[in-house]
Design goal:
It contains four helices and five strands, in the order βαβββαβαα. By secondary structure, the chain is α/β, with parallel strands linked by helices.
Length: about 130
């Protein structure tokens, strides 16, 4: 697959998570929601991860977060846009979803966000 030496820059501060959420750019999959904020630098893409208590108890949330981090570590450095920031919000299905499908969905979501497909939906104007 991909070399294990790839690393992923992380989002760790709450204001950074909120900044990504305020852009209202997201792509929804069965196992996660990927939010994105475009950047203009040539720095590597950054990612942050969160899983709410709705998903389950601590052990389940941790398992979902670990699986999403690993999928992002394989996918975002190669397929993410330089300078962009991403937030991955785990859903209940992330725990049992096949790992290959998780990586495929992440590549698909990154491509859709980069192409601006989330901006073309008719619901965007209704949300404001």
């Amino acid at each position: 697959m991909v070399s294990a030496t790839l690393s992923l820059a992380r989002i760790v501060k709450r204001p950074d998570y909120l900044a990504v959420a305020q852009t209202r750019r997201k792509w929804v999959t069965p196992s996660f929601i990927l939010q994105a904020m475009a950047g203009d630098s040539d720095s590597p893409p950054k990612a942050g991860f969160t899983v709410s208590k709705k998903v389950g108890k601590a052990v389940i949330r941790s398992r979902a977060k670990r699986r999403l981090k690993e999928a992002a570590r394989f996918t975002i450095p190669m397929h993410g846009t330089p300078g962009w920031s991403y937030v991955v919000i785990g859903r209940r299905a992330a725990v049992s979803y096949p790992f290959e499908k998780l990586c495929t969905d992440m590549r698909w979501a990154l491509a859709k966000l980069e192409s601006g497909a989330d901006l073309k939906s008719g619901n965007r104007d209704k949300q404001r």
